[in-house]
Amino acid sequence: MFGVSTGQRVMLVWSQPVNAEDLQSLVTDIKSTIGSEGKVSVENSEMLSSSAHPGSSIDHVLACVLPPFLAECPSNVLTEALQVIRPGGSLTLRTTAPSTLRSALILAGFTSVSQTGDANLTDEQKRDLSESVVEVTCKKPNFEVGSSLRLPGAKDAPQTTWSLNLDDDLDLDNPDDLLTEEDLTRPDPASLKVCGTTGQRKACKNCACGLKEELEGEEQVKKEEERKNFKSSCGSCYLGDAFRCASCPYMGMPAFKPGEKVKLSDTTLKDTT
After folding, report:
1. CA angle, corner 109, sides to 105 and 113, nearest 5?
2. Alpha-carbon radius of gyration of the chain
């Protein structure tokens, strides 16, 4: 039964709601299997952390083996089980989602996770089930959690310490000589202004501090500067939008002669409506 053997110390973890008769019957069966030399501890999953079992004192933990069967075992049960199971001891569970439970067990620190097949349920336990229930077993590693092992061939690190004689005449660099001209340049105060909401030089959605208008003005100046220094790679920018690239800075402006300053005509500026 569940891989339990004679003389083992077994912990049975149950959850609400549970059938009292099923629980008592399972405890009786376990006691019959382990004999008088073994011991069974029955714990509620919600009170497991306060049960104060000594670490590495249990040979086998049975959790989620009685209805209600869950897809995942509560994380506190896995954590406490890893603590109380002796190195090399076992944990057996029942689940409706073995792949999900497998990942949770590995992350909790268990090894040798294996699926032993469909759970052997009674007709009463199968009555209200819509999914198959699978039995999964795993083991605690053969070492204590937090233990360390010296690697073969490892040598002791030399115990060396730094010593400094303050009476020595040390030739230290002048900290001011380590600064460059760029380090000494004062930043532009305008570049230090940030949005109180975003904490960055980026206006928030409902900007009311003027940063949005300031950034738009800077962007417009930048575009004008790029337009002045722009050199056409195709040579057709002055012909009009039909001949311009999608990224052309003159897009949307009228045609002009090469070298001519682009101006909008008076008729273009008038409202014709």
Report:
1. 45
2. 38
CB 40 within 8 A of CB 34: yes
Exposure pattern of 106-139 as b/e (b: 16+ CB <10 Å)?
Answer: eebebeebeeeeebebeeebeeeeeeebbbbbbb
- The angle at the Cα of 122, spanning 120 to 126, to the nearest 5 degrees, equals 95
Prediction pTM value = 0.52
Question: What is the per-residue DSSP string for 157-179?
Answer: PP-------TTS---PPPGGGG-
Question: 39 with 12: CB under 8 angstroms?
Answer: no
- What sign results for the dihedral spanned by CA atoms 182, 184, 187, 192? positive
For residue 18, CA distances in Å to 13, 21, 93 come to 11, 9, 16
Please list the residues that pair with 235 across neighbouring strands.
none
Residues 27-82: pLDDT tens digits? 999 999 999 999 999 998 888 888 888 888 999 999 988 887 877 888 888 999 99
| Cβ burial 21-33 (10 Å sphere, 16+ → b, else e) | ebeeebbeebeeb
Distance CA 104, CA 109 (A): 9
d(CA 101, CA 157) in angstroms, rounded, equals 43
